[in-house]
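Structure tokens please, single chain.
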Amino acid sequence: METTPLPQNAEISGNVLFYAKPEPLNKEAHSKLGLMQVDKPFGFASTTNVVPLTVTEFAPASLSYPIIFAGEQLQPLAVMAVNQGENLAINPDGSVAADAYLPAYVRRYPFVLAGDDQGERLIVCIDVASSLIKENGDIPMFENGEPTEYTKGCIQFCNDFEAERQRTDNFVNVLKEHDLFETKQATFTPRNGDGTFGEPQVIAEYFAVSEEKLLALPADKFIALRDNGALSQIYAHLVSLNGWDKLIAKTLIKNAAAA
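Here you go.
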């Protein structure tokens, strides 16, 4: 894994959520750039309703959001709003709700590790299109041709995040091997003007761990999940699914206030 600035001609591939123009961090190209000190820096995530999570974040995130699995790779996601294009925890002004957990995926921005064009290594990048990065910004990225302590800390955070991402992939693979996933739906039953209830509406379909399948595992496999720490993360995920009602309630309150 590459953790130092690369030559200016290095190239990266793929798209990464939030990053409009990621470039390999380079002391020649970015010597004058710095990070702006902003009290509310997270506005870039205010229109995203789902954000990737690592498995070690399940416990704290479960108090704020439903945690689901989605896509072909069954990636864990924190559902931060029911509707696309909004986020009920991160406001357009960049502030974060006091009771909301902020995923590490958001906190690492504008730094990121990205694959090179050969797909053989990860390189440290910054999103040069970010409003948090300016020429002669408050916190320099380089001093005397070397990364500052702040930059080194950001790079270390990205490395730690990558390690957690790999641990998360292993966790998901274990769940797949045990055939623990099932499809689920989040539903909402509207109340009519006369006080009666309408037909339930499906607001989301996703993958989740089946508690029935989990409890049906042979004792040795269940104990193995307990001993390797996976079981506690599974239950954090299952508990988090109770958060759909809270998320729907927040949506209704927001819609009523807008109306």
